[in-house]
Amino acid sequence: MAINTDKNVYTVVFAAIMVVIVGSVLALTASGLSDKIAENEKFEKQQNILYAMGVNSNVDEGSVNFIPANEVEDEFLKYIKKQLVIEGDKVTEDKEAYLIDMKKQIAISKTGETPKLPLFVGEKDNKEFYIIPMYGKGLWDAIWGFIALDKNMVVQGVYFDHKGETPGLGANIKQRYFMDDFTGETIMSGTRYKGITVAKGNNDPVNERKDDNAVDALAGATITGNGVSAMITETVNLYKDYLKTIRVK
């Protein structure tokens, strides 16, 4: 007996079968790729951490080039000497501290509970770097990054990224010219841990002043810039007690 394909019931049944088939295929594909996805996420975090401390493949003044994925694991082991987890007064080493979800830990800190905060101690050219992960909110969605400090609490480098900021405006937080402005700035104001503000009209467009706790804002991206400022301040406050133990002046 021929099937009447003009009936609504046929359309509904056919659609349901296709949803099941396509869903099953997608689920199997995702399951098969889960290990590769996790590996890529690991490499990306390692690349970002190294970039913040100045280990990258940049070849000119404007590019943002990471250590290649097939090399980054070895480079990470070469330059990152310790991975620490700070939990209140307790500081322990953990070789997978870079996998800690900073978004989750910030949420925990806001409940009054003690978060587990990752911190990476790097060494390059006989100099120590303290690299701290950050997470915050931009105009449209999440922003995140890493900030590298020396023992004087002077920024040695940063890396920023975003999920959905406006192209050509807020998305420029990951551009080289913006990130480079942070190098040399201090998170201290006297003896107070202040952070760094992305400031409009700070009368320092070429960022010559390094003691003002400020960098010049991005044009047309006030809310994203405010998000970066808040993210850095919140990070400094979370890590402040530990940073006091390493600060030399």
Describe the protein's architecture and organization.
By secondary structure, the protein is of the alpha+beta class. The protein has a domain at 81-246. It is built from 5 helices and 10 strands, in the order ααββαββββαββββα. It has helices at 8-52, 69-79, 102-109, 176-180, 222-246; strands at 80-87, 90-93, 117-124, 127-137, 142-149, 155-162, 188-189, 192-193, 197-199, 214-216. It has a 6-stranded antiparallel β-sheet with strand order 2-1-3-4-5-6, sandwiched between helices. Strands 7-8 form a two-stranded antiparallel ribbon. Strands 9-10 form a two-stranded parallel ribbon. Strand 1 and strand 2 (90-93) form a beta hairpin. Helix 1 (8-52) packs across helix 2 (69-79). The model has no long low-confidence stretch (mean pLDDT 90).
Number of strands: 10
Pattern of helices and strands: HHEEHEEEEHEEEEH
Ends distance: 89 Å
Rounded radius of gyration (Å): 23 Å
Low-pLDDT segments: none
Average pLDDT, to the nearest integer? 90
User: Which of globular, elongated, flat, extended, rod-shaped describes the shape?
Assistant: globular
Strand content: 15-25%
